[in-house]
Specification:
By secondary structure, this protein is of the alpha/beta class. The protein has one domain: 3-Layer(aba) Sandwich (Rossmann fold), CATH 3.40.50.880. It is 26% helix and 29% strand. The chain contains 6 helices and 12 strands. Strand 10 and strand 11 form a beta hairpin.
Amino acid sequence: MVTIIDYDAGNIRSVENAFRLLGAQVQITRDAEVISNASRVVLPGVGAFGDAMQKLNAFGLTEVIREIAGKGTPFLGICLGLQLFFEESEESPGVKGLSLLPGKILRIPEAEGLKIPHIGWNDLTFPRETRLFRDIGTNPFVYFVHSYYLRSEEPSFVAARTTYGVSVDAAVEKDNLFACQFHPEKSADVGMRILKNFLSVQTGQQ
């Protein structure tokens, strides 16, 4: 069972549909008890960092998110979900993120010929072997939609990178925590393989 956290952040249905295509059972909820007892959890999202944190706080979800992160439940953040895993974002000064991992979210710098937001397909490079990108192959292309990007304070957590004017930490993996700045649910066969790899992760597996 895949439990998708509903905090009115958009993009939930496409994530749900992708997991269902893989044969997974899916539930969408903001019930803290249900999330606490879930076997694997997904935090999707598109939108603004500050608004998202306000909703997570208003719905009483921040503590249960930290609980499942701490007890080893496989947990996947997608797009805005990745950004919320970290401490803060230039998009919303003064707003604290979930702080599950150390790092900051920065605005993609302006550059000649560079369109912001970054919308489209970019290839990934992998600094290390990870469970999330098992059997993906070399330099796969995935689909991005974002104006802000992660700079992880701990390079050993970075699972994939891309380049869009600057080096972008495009995915992270640490123990039971996984996150992608891109949209695997919109990244064709490569994205479906990534989601399938997440489904294969066992609780407590590292």
